[in-house]
Amino acid sequence: MSISPKIPWPRILAEGLAIVVSILLAFGIEAWWSDRETRLNVQENLIALGDELISNRAEI
């Protein structure tokens, strides 16, 4: 006679779901942060370009 252990499926599914949600959240945060850095770099470059154009115009 073999006694099979009862598998706690609700707990396993809840832990698996928590892991998947955590990974997706981490990917989302990484994408948001990368996009934020890109926008900041674009803004800085536009300001520098504007300053350079003003400087060049003054030299003409």
Summarize the structure.
The chain is mostly helical and 60 residues long. The chain has one helix at 9-59. The relative contact order is 0.06.
Q: Helix content range of the residues, please?
A: over 70%
Helical element count? 1
Largest sheet: none
Structural class, judged by helices and strands? mainly alpha
Taken as a percent bin, the fraction of beta residues is under 5%
Helix and strand succession?
A: H
The radius of gyration is 27 Å
Poorly predicted ranges: none
Mean pLDDT across residues: 95
- Give the end-to-end Cα distance, rounded to a whole number of Å: 97 Å
Q: Could you say which overall geometry the principal axes of the C-alpha atoms support?
A: rod-shaped
Per DSSP E runs of 2 or more residues, the count of β-strands stands at 0
What can you see in these coordinates?
The chain is mainly α and 60 residues long. The chain has a domain at 24-60. The chain has 1 helix and no strands. The radius of gyration is 27 Å and the shape is rod-shaped. The N and C termini lie far apart (97 Å). The relative contact order is 0.06. The model has no long low-confidence stretch (mean pLDDT 95).
